Amino acid sequence: MATTHNDIHYYNVSTRYARISVLDSGGNGLPVLFIHGNSSSKDVFFHQIEYFKNDYRVLALDLPGHGLSSNASEPRKAYSMPAYAQTVIEVLEKIGINRVVVFGWSLGGHIGLEMLALFPKMIGLMICGTPPVSAGKDSVAQGFCLNDHMGLAAKADFTEEDVKIFAYETVGINAPHEQFIFDAVARTDGLSRQYMFEAFTSPQATDQRLLAETSKIPLAIVNGSGDPFINAQYIGSLNYQHLWRDQVISLAGVDHAPFWEAPAQFNPILADFLCDF
């Protein structure tokens, strides 16, 4: 059932593994898709939706097992970065999107990297809080700062305390902590964390470093300088062929979710990126 609120349309799209909840501003502008992170929801992009909805066709969705989307019918198959990418592509195809720029945050950025190999209709990609790593646990360890939060990112069953900690740390300890952020963590299908992380650290995982380095479309990387989960030195050391502005952009004084914590800093950068298309 479709609904409309403040000129924003909400509807569900049936896919192979789940019923996906979609936000769509409509209009004839260039479609821009926002993909959220682990145990989050499309609501985290509130500031970008409001900022861009009059000039672009803003799209956001809840991944399977997240937000208002259903849990996956086949969790082991659906909860991996490649499968998430296939679900996102299925949604875009079903709603008739022929070209799109994607912004992916954290897990959403990894999904965007997977889409580089799968979806030629994506004409630009910006990622945030997303180290492009090769397959295997050792390679994953190079891109991330391994800490207690990383353990939670793979944990199936959350206590109430886990929900609070994960929500606080994911959006940044100094960021606004609105109730929907905690609700999104609590709602998430815990198997999506466990199975996604198992697949991500498998030797059979996609070589996302190779995809990032050889991307044929512009790849923008914007991180918070205080992001406690990523190895900024590693991200900056890769040999990108189409890195936007020829540099990894670091926003001072913000953590893992600069688009939420500091939208006044972040939104103009995304706006500049979108002007290139």
From TrEMBL:
* One Pfam entry name: Abhydrolase_6
What molecular functions are annotated in GO for this chain? hydrolase activity
Q: Does the keyword Protein transport apply?
A: no
AB hydrolase-1 domain location:
32-267
**InterPro entries with a match to the protein in the record:** AB_hydrolase_1, AB_hydrolase_fold, AB_hydrolase_sf
Q: Which UniProt keywords apply?
A: Hydrolase
Q: What is its EC number?
A: 3.3.2.-
- Name of the featured protein: Epoxide hydrolase
In which organism is this protein found?
Answer: Xenorhabdus innexi
